[in-house]
Design a protein that fits this description.
By secondary structure, the chain is mainly α. The chain is built from ten helices and three strands, in the order H-H-H-H-H-H-H-H-H-E-E-E-H.
């Protein structure tokens, strides 16, 4: 599958998803700690809206901390733009050539897919990312990438139940390919998404 086509399709799909959310869900938490749906949506379009000089200026303000920069910009932009505008940024820039620094075009697809899942999984929506898109990202997984995203998958073998794919060695952990992708990107999932003895290691705490 052409990756640029996959990126454009994913952005349009996510714009449709965001347009369909009721107002209260825009303030619901996501799998990105500390960010609501509106912050994640704002962050997803930052690369389209910020020129390189502006992004560098924001990075200087954050004293070189990319995490602090993206957090501040997401919070600021989540307030500055309406939900309709945030969704439109994705749709109108479906074919924008932005790529994360050093991550390449696969990184752009991963950025869109994973942040979209940060929203849909946290909200309990039954959205399935097309497996062709997920497969592209799973093929790029390496020990270096899991370390970068803070994914502690040592001693675990991840096994997809909807795709002929596995990663690692050790105690089996089974789930949908898109859920295992989230694990590899350092996310914890709501209980019930993963099966195996170590499932609780990658699960969020149940709501009180």
């Amino acid at each position: 599958m052409d990756i640029r086509t996959a990126i454009a399709d994913e952005r349009r799909d996510l714009a449709d998803l965001l347009d369909g959310l009721p107002s209260p869900q825009w303030d619901a938490p996501t799998l990105c700690a500390g960010w609501r749906v509106r912050e994640v949506a704002a962050h997803m379009s930052l690369g389209f809206r910020y020129s390189l000089p502006r992004a560098l200026a924001e990075l200087v303000k954050a004293r070189g901390s990319l995490h602090q920069m993206t957090d501040r910009c997401a919070r600021k932009d989540a307030t500055a733009f309406s939900p309709r505008e945030l969704a439109a940024f994705l749709r109108d820039n479906a074919e924008h050539p932005w790529q994360p620094p050093t991550a390449g075009i696969e990184g752009a697809l991963g950025h869109d897919v994973v942040h979209g899942l940060d929203i849909s999984v946290a909200l309990g929506l039954d959205r399935r990312v097309p497996l062709d898109r997920v497969r592209i990202l799973l093929k790029k997984v390496t020990p270096k990438s899991t370390k970068f995203f803070g994914a502690d998958v040592g001693g675990v073998q991840l096994r997809a139940d909807d795709l002929d794919w596995s990663y690692g060695s050790g105690t089996p952990l089974t789930g949908a390919a898109q859920d295992l992708l989230l694990v590899l990107y350092g996310r914890k999932l709501p209980p019930g998404h993963l099966r195996g003895e170590l499932g609780s290691r990658f699960a969020t705490e149940p709501a009180a």
